[in-house]
Amino acid sequence: MNQNSNTTDDTIDLKELFFSLIAQWKVILLCVILSIICAVIYLRITTPIYSTDALVQVEDSKGAGAAALLGDLSKAVPGVGGKSAADAEIEILNSRMILGKVIEDLNLNIRIHDNQDTLFNRIIEPNKNQTIYKNNLVIFKNEKSEFVIKTLDVPAYYIDKPLELNFINTDKFTLSYKDNIVFEGTLNTANIKTDKFGQWNIALFNKTPFKQSFILKKLSLPSAVSLVRSQYAVGERGKQSGVIGLSYNGTDKEHITDVLNNVLNVYQAQNVERKSLESKQTLSFLDKQLPELKKQLEISEIKFNDFRQKYNTIDVTQEAELMLKQNVELAKIKIELQQQQAELSSKYTNDHPLMAAVNAQLAEIDQKTSEMTQTIKKLPETQRLYLQLYRDVKVNTELYTTLLNSYQQLKIAEAGEIGNVRIIDHAVEPVKPVKPRSLIILLLSLFVGGFIGVMIALIRNMLKSGIKDATQLENEFNLPVYATVPRSLLQENRIRLLKKKKSIPILAVKHGDDIAVESLRSMRTAIHFVLNSAANNIIMISGPSPEVGKSFISTNLATILTQSGSRVLIIDADLRRGYIHKYFNLDTQPGLTEYLNFQSSLESVIRETNVSSLSVMTRGKSPNNPSELLGSSRFKALLEQVSTQFDYVIIDTPPVLAVTDGIIIAQYAGVNLVVARHSKTQMKELDITINRFEQAGVKVNGFILNDIQRSAGGSYGYNYNYAYKASKDNN
User: Fold this and answer.
1) Which of 144, 335, 538, 623 has the smallest C-beta neighbourhood within 10 Å, fewest atoms?
2) pLDDT digits (tens, 9 = 90+) for 588-647
């Protein structure tokens, strides 16, 4: 940059930033509209998802068999009849035992996909297909027709593989895999065939065959379970509450309700079956033990009666009586522990803590019984025999009575067994979908679109490195800005008019009250002061790059100068692509090129216009050596001559960074003005332009900032290697 340039303030102007966003409201609005359109398309192609839920309570419960047999003894052994953990029940609800049964009952391992159900078709028309799963068939239907699958058994090789279903005529169908027909069958009847992969058993019923094809897939149990689990959730409601919540999602309200209720039924049935299994095993045990105990009781009573008849009644000491009671109690406990051991052995191995506890108690009872037996053997023979016989009668009587009571209790318990699971809420058919949530998605799309639009606007504003205001130019180059020309409607459409029409209206003539014209009119006084100290009355209008508005400024400034009564000549020195002639509806020839080539006289190339006191010299035919012509002595002499004939001579030049013509002409001009375009012209371009003038020993008097906007709505890049060739318009 220029060495005398001042340091720019690198702070953020929030007001300018706000207005830059306002100026780009079209970009922001477009992003919002596109975002809403995407949201609407998403809502249209997305099938609504419904969700249903249920509640299950896991209650504390003791096994009926254990409670009947053991009574208070179950409390002495840890874990017997304890609380069922909700975590264990959650795992059961997620198990293949439960879900596999549901899949089998409702044929959830059969999947049907309509090949016409594509995103494009959903945009045109919402999907109205429905698949109904029942315990013995699967129904696919839409508004036009339906087909029913009663049996779909395929060889193991085709499990989990997509089979394409096509209806042939009205009574045939085929199944294809990888474009090869693997099965052909008849509609409305069972089809059983065998190939190298195994047996097929398919029963497909249809009255009006579909024209489109379908994809059928028979899922393996793991695949079907995984698919169900992807839409199924189980979790405990609250910490250790014992209440389990279940939910199931899907596109069919009736289907998801049936599936979840089926899960509840299967789960409750297995729970009751599991709980009643204990009672059944205990009853089976008692059915075998009761006859044996009754027989043992009868035998022990006969032996005891025979002993009493032989020895009559004998007295026993208190010590012997106490040993008898202890022996009877030990025998009773041993029998109960053996029964408990038999019950637990059906659930656990010998290494389980419960089994280890029972075995340890049995060993302790055996040890005490052995010690008691040794003590009894030390008694007199008669007392010893009496105690043994009496003990047998007493033990067998109490055991028989206890087991008989337990048997009756178990019969009652079996009839009333309900398990430890209570269904609090069954699944009910949902009313509203859980997703997509239309209002939330539309609001979110509104915010997302606005955010993206603002981000794009900010990025465009950041990338915009062009000149933003006149102060920036004055601070950077220490040169005055003679005029800031606001954007006018005609100026905005200038390039478009140039391509479509041969004539371009002069803004100062057609719209003299335009704000851009008023800005140029205010420049007229400043030019008077500059010319007072200038070498001549020649004003050169140049610019760093094409399309900055040099011709627009030159033409309108010349017109304004004539309004004060001055005679003005405007010269189109852009011999390659100049188009000053189009403002005056003239031909390019004869022009400056013809004069410099000695083909026309000065009088013939200076032509009057429809603007009073304004003459124009067009560029003429595009020459092969424009720089040489402009650097010739004839051009210098031309300027000296016209300078005396007119009050002002305005020269429109080609871009300085594109060609050297402007630098050559600047040497003959008294005032050199550089036009910069707001938001397009880069500071680097102007810096190079000023340096080129300085290298040629030419002073730049100041700038004209053209096409001022409140805030730029777009960003411009730049390139110093401009393509600047002659126009094909060589009239």
Assistant:
1) 144
2) 888 899 999 989 888 889 999 888 889 999 988 988 888 888 889 999 999 999 999 999
CB 138 within 8 A of CB 110: yes
Q: 443 Cβ partners below 8 Å, 6+ apart?
A: none
| 360 class by beta-carbon count within 10 Å (0-12 exposed, 13-18 middle, 19+ buried) | exposed
Check residue 156 and report its DSSP letter.
Answer: G
b/e string for 421-431 if b means 16 or more Cβ within 10 A?
A: bebeeebeebe
- Given a cut of 60, whether residue 718 has pLDDT beyond it is no
Angle of CA points 264, 270, 272, to nearest 5°:
100
Separation of alpha carbons 320 and 380, rounded Å: 10
426, 257 Cβ separation under 8 angstroms: no
Tell me, rounded to whole angstroms, the distance of Cα 667 from its chain centroid: 65
Neighbouring residues of 466: CB distance < 8 A, sequence distance ≥ 6 = 677, 678, 679, 680, 681, 682, 712, 715, 716
Q: β-strand 614-617 against 568-572: which pairing, if any?
A: parallel
Nearest to 703 by CA among 478, 475, 481: 481
Pick from 689, 383, 442, 435: nearest CA to 548: 689
Q: What is the DSSP string of 384-437?
A: HHHHHHHHHHHHHHHHHHHHHHHHHHHHHHHHT---SEEEEE-----SS-SBS-
Q: Other CB atoms closer than 10 Å to residue 383's CB: what's the count?
A: 17
Residues in Cβ contact with 289 at an 8 Å cutoff, skipping those fewer than 6 apart: 339, 403
Q: 719 pLDDT exceeds 60? A: no
Q: pTM of the entire structure?
A: 0.56
Indicate left, alpha or beta for 164 from its phi (over 0: left) and psi (-120 to 50: alpha). Answer: beta
| Helix extents (H) in 590-679 | 592-596, 602-605, 626-630, 633-645, 661-666
| DSSP H or E stretch at residue 217 | strand 214-218
Cβ-contact 654, 540 below 8 angstroms = no
Q: φ and ψ at 393, to 5 degrees? A: -65, -45
Closest CA to 66 of 340, 418, 337: 340
- Return the ∠ at Cα 511 (arms to 505 and 515), rounded to 5°: 120
Instruction: Enter the tokens of residue 333.
Output: 């406990």
Q: At what angle are helices 318-344 and 381-415 packed, to 10 degrees? A: 40
The residue behind tokens 């799309």 is 445
Radius of gyration of the chain (CA): 53
User: Using an 8 Å Cβ cutoff, are 613 and 559 in contact?
Assistant: no
Q: Which two tokens stand for residue 491?
A: 């100026």
d(CA 653, CA 666): 9
DSSP-based three-state secondary structure for 594: helix
Biggest distance spanned by C-alpha atoms of the chain: 173
* Side-chain-side CA neighbours of residue 475 (13 Å): 10
CA 424 to mean position of chain CA atoms: 36
SS3 588: coil
Q: What are the tokens at 37?
A: 């359109």
Tell me: pLDDT of 396 over 70: yes
Q: What is the pLDDT of residues 506-549, one digit of tens each?
A: 888 877 777 888 888 888 888 888 888 888 989 999 999 888 88
Please tell me what DSSP assigns to residue 48.
P
Query: CA–CA separation, 346 vs 277, rounded Å?
Result: 10
Query: Any idea what DSSP says for residue 580?
Result: G
CA distance 666 to 678: 23
Q: What pLDDT score was predicted for residue 383?
A: 62
